[in-house]
Amino acid sequence: MSSHARTDAAEEGETETKKERFTGSGMARVEDHRILTGEAEYIHDKAPEDSLHMALLRSVHPHADIVDIDTSEAEDHPGCHLVLTAEDIKAEYNPMPAGLEGFEEWSLADGRARYVGEPVVAVIADDRYVAEDVVDLVNVKYDQLDCVVDPREAREDEVVVHEEFGTNVGDHEELVFGDPDSAFEEADHVIEKSYSWGRISGVPLETAGVVAQYDDDTDSFDIDCNIQLHTLVDDTVYETLGYDPDDVNLDVPPDVGGSFGTKIAIHRYCCLAAMASKELNKPVTFVEDRIENLQGGDMHSTEREYDVKVALDDDGTIRALDFWFVDDFGAWPRYPVNQVLKPLSVLTNAFDVQDARYEYDLVLTNKTCQTAYRGFGVPSHLYALEMLVDDAAEALGIDPDELRRRNLIEAHQMPYQLPSKNIYDSGDFPAALAHVQQRIEEERDGGLLDPETVEQKREEGKYRGVRPTVHIEPGVSGSDWTDRQRSDREGLEERNREDVAELPEHLRAEIRPDGTVKAYLATDTSGQGHQTLVSQLLADELGVLPSDIEVGYLDSETAPTEYGTAASRMAVMLSGAAQGLGKELVSNLERLAAETWDCDEDDVTYRDGAVVRVDGGGEETLSLAELAAQDDESGLTRASYDYEHPTTQLEQFDEALSKKLPVYPTAAFAANAPIVEVDTKTGEVDILKFYSLRDCGTQLNPTIVEGQAHGGLAQGIGAALQEEFGYDESGQPQAITLFDYKLPSIEHIPELELEHTETPSPFTATGAKGTGEGGMIDGPASLACSINAALEPLGVRADQIPFTPNRIRERIRQVEGEE
Amino acid sequence: MSADDTSGSLDRPTEDISLSINGESVSAEVEPRHKLSDFLRDAQDLRGVRVGCEHGVCGACTVLMDGQAVKSCLTYAVQADGTEIETVEGLAEDGALHPIQEAFHEEHALQCGFCTSGFVMASKELLDENPDPSKEAVEKGLADNICRCTGYQNIYDAVLRAADRMDGESTVDEEEEA
């Protein structure tokens, strides 16, 4: 075991507080080596030698009765081992848990197909090539039905997606905070607009995959898969299979090729592979291909139509906000039901407004089901709000920058309680806005926004503009509110704090015989650098090197049910857990040393990777390796720690928690100023430079923080300008390859001018706020605002996301036609 | 092709191929429809070749064939007969990372890492052909690869860092030769 670098570096006479800390340094990741050399093992690499392979026959119709399935020819194929239909699985298993009560969804379409790409038949064969051959031999006879694809139309119930449910409106709620009615009545102006947010999603490069193996001896399943939140959503698998949680072990590989929230809903594949494995008593592998993923992989995310209103006074003071939207969930409701609620945690974004109304219809249509995606429903909310502020500024004839500045929450108002009862922990939004404003001022003097250049470009039909905005990234989701839709909402009024149950985050570690440390995460990971983070934090707590700490993972059976990786939780929850675990281990080791030396615990102290005897005289020490050797029975070289959710000790959150309103105790934030140039001939938007000042509280690893911002902004840029799962009127998906779903490449991502400030959170153990969703949360809204600024002379607004070249040309033609 | 192909539509004809993979000679019997990506991953156990889309857009499966970057998901294994294939597994020597791999690590040019092998191999082709690329050349060289996590700036910086380092090495070599 290595000696400690910090002590070597420490000059004589320096105090301990001046020692170098790994936490807060931009240490390169421990995950990288195996990835860079091709040794990483993703789920696609997992199939054992004797595994069979599954392929799925999927519906080609958006809405159709399944009249007959003829599997005889498929079954005759010499490479075919099994063909499964809904009829087969219904005899032995359960429907998959749905996001709302009243829906019964089987792992294969039961009697009726409700979207293009919905799995109807599963076949298992020798390998994937043969499995696809066999799928071609299954004959399904459909009786086509009318379909519904427009979310506003779906509310009319002319075509009902689920007859037994009776309506396409799966859920509806109106939440009123303060007294918006009076504010709208009394205010000098009311501006009312509509905006639209298209179907966009994470589209991780690695598709879903599973290897399921049934064990006949123990009547249990081992399922390797790349599901996200495997300890939380394992119920979607074990309940479907009808087994106890202990008999269905989900194990996620240490390397997952991206998720961004989307992979929480891949349980269908896990269930089908498990069922087939039990039937055949052999391992069964399924790897989703890209067309399946884009078309019917249940991987789309938020699609919303907004009607919004703002009440303002003559001086630009925002008096009240009113949001109404319809969210198109596709054919079945899943977890992202909560995406319609999460925006309540940032209801007014960075603005100080206390009266608001929030109402939504969650509708079902003949489209692919929604899953979660980075930002979890917030990006579209911030977009609609910022567009409304732009439109209000225009209507009132006030400079939009000035309108925003006048309404921002001030630093002295922190912590700030929103009307929707969530609390922003800390931050100085006006200072952040002023800073990026200053940066773009510099561009006006001979830079990208030099008036002469801007004018000259405009003559070429290229319109430049920028509009700074401030955005909140709510972090560290509580979990208790997430079943609000299944709760008796009237009854919520009677609830109090004692009824609230939040999930902590779990971490454990042990000292190995060689004195190194093995820690175990209870969560899965998909590129965020959790292993690096834990090794940095534990190294500091234990006074060892990060390289002395190896970080592994617990499977769903071993780990307690924790919330895991979601909502930018891990920086806060894992760092809190690592800090707590480190202290627990140190205390354990001191006790062990005291027992070994037969002295009082006060006579020993832990220092730099060893326990030292401090009761005078000798300079006895016990290294970690020596302590590990002492630890026969006591178990003191092992410890586990559960970091409680930050809100559990804070009275300020009582109201939000007891009423099951979304609780996000950290407010990371960004002030953005992307400079855009819109080519009015082609409709292309060129982002010339993207200024962004970002604050996620204490930066545990600035390299990773910066990386998250880069990645988030790239996704935000893609969402704003080019990505979309479109559907035609007949319900056929328009983006089923990566030629149609246009992910940004290196040519689409501009120079990012990122700066960071650190406003530590007063609510979290380490001051970290979480930063996993930024960029995707704030990128689209800020780009749309800058496009508004660029196209202001033409009177064109970025009223639809993505604002594609086609839509831009359409809007320009429209205003030209009106002139 | 195998001798008997009389069993109708269920027959799986094969062909024999010989090629070099990361400097090793390999002979195999493959189905003509077998993709090079699947052949490398499954038959040759080179799992560093990642399959992201199977229709030639994402570039995760990029390998070098006779020095040229190809998408192995759009290439059949039979097309690789007689060629020299290089994959990410062949880059590190004696446990030491290749300068491109090292630069990706140092610049935090990977997060989930699923696209990384493809980017590294595309970068290798780019730097082999153009040791001192301009910004535009890097953009052009990497435009066939998609990354969903890191947002490209760090990848761009990694390629330039690798170019500096590899250029530096070649300078040393030249001096030694002189």
Would you write up a description of this structure?
The complex is a heterodimer of chains A (819) and B (178). With 819 residues, chain A is an alpha+beta fold. Chain A contains 21 helices and 30 strands. Chain A has a seven-stranded mixed β-sheet. A six-stranded mixed β-sheet of chain A has the order 7-15-14-13-8-30, sandwiched between helices. In chain A, α11 runs parallel beside α20 (779-791). Chain A is globular and about 90 Å long. The model of chain B is unreliable at 1-9 and 170-178 (pLDDT under 50). Chain B has helices at residues 36-43, 99-106, 116-129, 135-142, 153-177, and strands at 15-21, 24-30, 62-65, 68-71, 84-86. Chain B is 35% helix and 14% strand. Chain B has 178 residues and is an alpha+beta fold. Chains A and B meet through α2 and α19 of A and α2, α3, α4 and α5 of B.
Secondary structure topology:
The complex is a heterodimer of chains A (819) and B (178).
Chain A: H1 5-9, H2 32-36, E1 52-58, E2 64-70, H3 72-76, E3 80-84, H4 86-92, E4 112-113, E5 119-125, H5 128-135, E6 139-144, H6 151-154, E7 169-177, H7 180-186, E8 189-197, E9 209-215, E10 220-225, H8 235-241, E11 248-251, H9 267-280, E12 284-287, H10 290-296, E13 304-312, E14 318-328, E15 355-363, H11 378-396, H12 400-407, E16 416-417, E17 423-424, H13 429-444, H14 451-459, E18 462-465, E19 469-475, E20 505-511, E21 517-521, H15 530-542, E22 549-553, H16 569-597, E23 604-607, E24 610-613, E25 621-623, H17 624-630, E26 638-643, H18 654-658, E27 666-679, E28 685-695, H19 702-721, E29 752-757, H20 779-791, E30 800-801, H21 805-818
Parallel strand pairs in A: 1-12, 8-30, 10-11, 14-15, 21-22, 28-29
Antiparallel strand pairs in A: 1-5, 2-4, 2-6, 3-5, 7-15, 8-13, 9-10, 9-12, 13-14, 16-17, 18-27, 19-27, 20-21, 20-26, 23-24, 24-25, 27-28
Chain B: E1 15-21, E2 24-30, H1 36-43, E3 62-65, E4 68-71, E5 84-86, H2 99-106, H3 116-129, H4 135-142, H5 153-177
Helix pairs in contact in B: 2-5, 3-4
